[in-house]
Amino acid sequence: MSLEHVLLFSNPWLGGIRGSSTILRNITSLSSAIAYSDRITENITTLSTNYAASDGIIQGLLYTPDIDPDDPCSARASQYIPNNATKQENLPPTSYNLIALAPWIDPDCTYSLLTSTRADQLRAFIFYLPGNDTSQPPGADDAVWKLDNSSTGNSWIAKYRYPIYVVPSATGSRMMHELSLYSGNLTQVPYGANITELYHPDSADYVRIWTELRVSFDNTPLPIWAYVLIICGVVLLILGSTSLMMHWIQNRRRASLRRRVKSGEVDLEALGVKRLTVPPEHILNFPLFTYNYDPPTSPMSPTSPYPEDVKAAYTATSSHGAFPRGSILPTDYQPKCHICLDDFESKVTIIRELTCGHIFHPECIDEFLGEISSLCPICKKSMLPRGYAPKITNGMVRRERATRRLRPRIVAPATSEEPRQRVDSWGSTVKRHLRSAPSSPTLSKHPVIELPERAKDPETARQRMRELADPIDDRSDDGNPPWKRAVAKVFPWP
């Protein structure tokens, strides 16, 4: 920590004119055999680093503070401080930086020593406990350094604008002894004759001890618990950052999927991602009509491509004279409800038409869209209103992304043939085949009509509804163990 040098100063009073002292020689660096030199490298306690030099180097002339003779501490300090030790009055008149050296006798004497340095240009204070102990002084938090009754311990240290160090007792006593030796002129100091013979100074010149403190702190290994805390902190920081990043990514993906669902770009149920239902208020917006179908009279070809159930319906109806034999059924012919399989009765049955053009009993399609599926039972077109999106979850995002990656893109081959004409749907011909019911968006405002009793059992109809809806494995994470659900909440893996 410290490096002691002996410096040769010029006599400022030489020739009767008071001037500034100048350093003539650094005797220690030129010839350490005829000067005091000491180096302290261990067993040092730091009480304060207040206003310590930023580069870790503190320099100044070593001295012991003057105590007022009337102070009771003056008599007690004389037992440890030699009378000829360098005092303020023995220092050069030039304003050199100073480093104080004193024994730690008791709290009262320490206060007196600290108080006496207020007017000095002090850069550091070195204390030592009286005795010849070579071990390290007590730590900075020890009660021996407590000067007041404050509950905060060593609060007095903050009052002083210089660092404070404590050296071992034997080291401090040796430094004080050398300080007492190098406080006179060349005729009084050790090796004065040798210094005079080598450097031929003026007889009135004198030497003093210059102290240089190179403050550095040993890189003491941290205890194991400190390393454990550091590692835990780093791990928590990494996990927290990862969790936040994953939540941010998933939040953006949910927002993107919600936006595409609202715009109609993605049909979650058609992709097999999630079973959805249509809001009740939107179901009631599908129009109601009275079924009215006038059969065509054109002959029916023996090789008609229509399904057997349509032909059967045609044959059964024609036997009553409703459809002449040999007539051709139109492509949009819908004689019965596709859910309950009950026939529509012309000019009697109330039907609800979906946007895709297919018609059903209101009670059948309302229950199907509101409780079973949002897709038309026949063409599987979504009946969800534009701008509507259900609550989007992370599981729905994962399934939609996986489905999008797995499903190949189907590119229609280029052909020079003219595209086929689109077959008219029920919606495009309904005005030609139906007699519109009184204008009303809901069934409640429709005139009360006695509907025929359904031919099918309600439970059978519901079973058929479930069969008409495409199977979708939209199981959530609820089936996972609790620990997996907890991990998924913290780390929503994409």
TrEMBL record:
SMART domains: RING (SM00184). The chain crosses the membrane at residues 224-249. Gene3D superfamilies: Zinc/RING finger domain, C3HC4 (zinc finger) (3.30.40.10). It comes from the Eukaryota. Keywords: Membrane, Metal-binding, Transmembrane, Transmembrane helix, Zinc, Zinc-finger. Residues 337-380 form the RING-type domain. One of its GO terms (molecular function) is ubiquitin protein ligase activity. Residues 413-486 are annotated as: Disordered. GO terms for biological process: ubiquitin-dependent protein catabolic process. One of its GO terms (cellular component) is cytoplasm. Residues 447-478 have a biased composition (Basic and acidic residues). This is RING-type domain-containing protein. It comes from Neoarthrinium moseri. The lineage of its organism: Eukaryota, Fungi, Dikarya, Ascomycota, Pezizomycotina.
